[in-house]
Write a structure and sequence with these properties.
alpha/beta; TIM Barrel; six-stranded parallel sheet; 11 helices; binds fe (ii) ion
C-alpha cells in the first residue's frame, strides 16, 4: 500500500507544524499499513513556495525523517504543484519536481474552477514525457458539475488521485458520492491521505483501499499494482474508463416506457 499525497514535511506549508508532528503522522501511516509514503508539500506560487525556495532545508528535513524511519517505511520526495502557466519551464529547469524527482508529477486545481488553459499544459507535459496525476479531482466543483471534463482530461493522459478523507465524508456527502462514482467508472488511479496534521485531516488511508476493493475489484488490483510504480515515477498502464451513464436511471426510464406502452395497448 502506498500513500501518494501528504503534507508530512514540517514547517513548509499548511501541513505538519514541527518535527514531532511529522513523526506522529508517519507512525500513523505505518500503523495503517503504508509501505511507501510520498512527501508532497504544496507549491502554490505567491503563497507556498518555501519547499522549493529553501531547497536545502527541504533536503535536510527529508533526510532527517528518512533516516529516522529507515527500514520501517520508505519516504519519497515530491511536491503538490498548483497548476499555472510556468510549471513546464519550472519542471524543466529542475525548480519543481515530481515523485522521487522523476517526470511523474502531482498537480492540483483550486477547488472551484476548471482552468481551461490547463489542457494545453497537460498536452505539452505529455509531449515532453511527463506523466501527470491530478490531486483529488472529487473535491473540485467544476468537475463534479460536469464529469465529462474528467474524460477529456483522461484523454490528455491525466491520471487521478483520490483523497482517502473524501470517503470518510470529510468534505461532505456530495464529494463522497462523486468519489464513489469515480471509483466505479475506473476514473481513479491512485490514493493519497492528503494528511495535513496528526489529528482530523490525518494519515488514515486503509479504509479507502477497502472501499475501492468493495466497489471495483478490478480497479483495486490495478491500483495495487501501479501504486509503487507511480510513487517511484515509473509509467503505468491503467484500466479504460466506463461511460458516465447512470445504469439506475436508464433502468428507470425503460420501465417508464414499458408502462406507457402497456397503457396505450389497453
Ligand atoms: Fe494536498
Amino acid at each position: 500500500m502506498v500513500d501518494l499525497h501528504s503534507h508530512v514535511l514540517f514547517d513548509v506549508d499548511d501541513g505538519s507544524e514541527n518535527l514531532e508532528m511529522s513523526i506522529k503522522m508517519i507512525e500513523q501511516s505505518i500503523r495503517e499499513g503504508v509501505k511507501i509514503l510520498a512527501l508532497t508539500p504544496h507549491h502554490i506560487r505567491d503563497l507556498y513556495t518555501e519547499a522549493m525556495d529553501r531547497k536545502e532545508e527541504y533536503e535536510e528535513k527529508f533526510a532527517l525523517l528518512k533516516k529516522r524511519f529507515e527500514g520501517k517505511i520508505e519516504l519519497v520526495p515530491s511536491l503538490e504543484i498548483m497548476i499555472d502557466e510556468k510549471i513546464i519551464s519550472d519542471l524543466d529547469k529542475g525548480y519543481l519536481m515530481g515523485y522521487n524527482r522523476s517526470k511523474t508529477v502531482l498537480v492540483e486545481f483550486n477547488l472551484i474552477d476548471y482552468p481551461l488553459y490547463s489542457e494545453n499544459i497537460f498536452y505539452n507535459l505529455k509531449k515532453n514525457g511527463y506523466q501527470v496525476i491530478l490531486a483529488h479531482p472529487e473535491r473540485n466543483r467544476a468537475l463534479m458539475e460536469d464529469p465529462e471534463k474528467m474524460y477529456h482530461l483522461r484523454d490528455l493522459g491525466v491520471l487521478f488521485q483520490l483523497n482517502a478523507g473524501s470517503l470518510l465524508g470529510q468534505f461532505g456527502e456530495k464529494t463522497e458520492s462523486f468519489a464513489r462514482e469515480l471509483i466505479r467508472k475506473n476514473l481513479i488511479h491512485g490514493i493519497g491521505s492528503d494528511g495535513h496534521k496528526d489529528v482530523r485531516r490525518d494519515m488514515r488511508i486503509r479504509h479507502a483501499y477497502d472501499v475501492v476493493k468493495e466497489l471495483n475489484e478490478a480497479l483495486y488490483e490495478n491500483i495495487m499494482e501501479n501504486g509503487e510504480k507511480l510513487i517511484h515515477g515509473e509509467k503505468v498502464e491503467v484500466l479504460p474508463y466506463k461511460p458516465w451513464t447512470d445504469p439506475v436511471k436508464v433502468k428507470k426510464r425503460k420501465r417508464k416506457k414499458k408502462g406507457l406502452l402497456a397503457f396505450l395497448k389497453r
